[in-house]
What we know:
There is one protein chain. This protein has nine helices and no strands. The chain is mainly α and 194 residues long.
Amino acid sequence: MILRRKKRKGIKRRLLLLALLLLLWFSHKEIGRSWYPFEHQELIYHYSEVNQLDPLLVVSVIKTESNFNSQATSPKGARGLMQIMPSTANWISQQISKEPLQPEELFNPETNIRLGTWYLADLFEGFKNDPVLVIAAYNAGRGNVTRWLNEQHWTGERKTIDQIPFMETRQYIRRVQWNQKMYYYLYDTKQQTS
Length: 194
């Protein structure tokens, strides 16, 4: 019993210290911006506008996917800033320009952002502008999310993401949304209203 109380006190102290550190850290936006950079702003704003997307969502996906490493390659073969699979990139390229795409082109930031933002916009169209479904589909694939919804494994709501069968996707949604909140705090001059 005494051991439990000491453990709880220790946890409370650590949480209080963490909260204090976060408060100090985010009271200085320049420090926060060093942890949440906004590289390739011009490209992100341009292709977000072209595809009618929130640029702070796009930068949050990039932060989550590659942490701005344009040469990133996942164990499954996804490449570049937005971690696009070569087969998906080729399909997107066919939709946009009817031109095939070489996998190496995914390491080019402009190409990757152009294709990734188009794909996000396509997911928004397919999932009726629901950002939680879009983020889930960007990670797990359109087919998986559709199946989870049709088979009632997941209601599709943010508050029920623990129903998602893939732990990676549950964590991915949380990370993207956390990153988006941080980007709104650090870079948005009008602040997020929701």
